[in-house]
Amino acid sequence: MRLPVLLLAGLLLTGAASADGLRVAAVLDGDTLELEDGRRVRLAGIEAAKPPRHANPADGRVWPLAEAATAALADLALGRRVALHGPAPIDRHGLLLAHLVREDGLWLQSALLVRGLARVHTRPDARAYAAELLAGEEAARNAGRGLWRSRVYAVRDAADADGLSRDRDSYQLVEGVVLAVSKSGGETWLDFGADWRSDVTIHIGRGAMREVTRAGIDPLSYEGRRVRVRGWITLRNGPMIEITHPEQIERLEREAASATRQRSDPGDDDLWDDDEGEDDLE
């Protein structure tokens, strides 16, 4: 899938690579590769299907979706010249986070998304082109391609608090109707159930609220609305997703009746674990 002309122009205007680009010397997994100058790049804004973080390669277990994603990236990029675009920060593993465009104009992130071999995973320092990325993911999900045929990657029901509690420390897409929105001390909570002490909750802290407001989002308007949110599942008075940037929330069109209630201070006696985990492929 080629970039739309206007988007390609925008990428070129913000690009930091040479006009000729660099050749891809190796593909390490479904969203990570090595350039001929030795730099390793992780494709910004997406997460390809991969084995779980604690999988042991010695046990011989096969992870078909992960292998398909790696093979697809190799077919798309190995030996080809690519240009790096976007801010290109360095992550905690020393990898560049960047958008990569092949010499013929093919956008690698989009190509993987529309094949259903990756899903959108933005972060505060890797948010560029989120709308275009989400459109590619939506097309693959609606068509049931790749990882969207697997229940491991299915969009989760926000009403299933027990199931999401069991999946703590995993990255999930969660969808449901927001029953109540509450604000206190510059923070905001969006609750999907009748009891905020145990239901699925979206939390937007003070810093993130500033970004959400700059993006023109009023969380109070989400009460009674169906939304899709993506992020790491932690536990604090039930399953919680912490919002760090506005691209994590999509407001969907369908509406539902709302329920209004008050939230008190959640306190500090419940478990709050920010460690990241990985999905298990099945």
UniProtKB/TrEMBL annotation:
GO molecular-function terms, A-Z: endonuclease activity; hydrolase activity
UniProt region (Disordered), positions on chain: 252-282
A family per Pfam: SNase
Signal peptide range: 1-19
Gene3D superfamilies, alphabetized: 2.40.50.90
Positions with biased composition (Basic and acidic residues): 252-266
KW Signal (keyword) present: yes
TNase-like domain location: 18-150
Keywords, in A-Z order: Endonuclease, Hydrolase, Nuclease, Signal
Biased segments, Acidic residues type: 267-282
UniProt keyword annotation of Zinc-finger present: no
Organism domain of life: Bacteria
InterPro entries cross-referenced by the UniProt entry: SNase_OB-fold_sf (IPR035437), Staphylococal_nuclease_OB-fold (IPR016071)
Name of the protein in question: Thermonuclease family protein
Organism ancestry: Bacteria, Pseudomonadati, Pseudomonadota, Alphaproteobacteria, Rhodospirillales
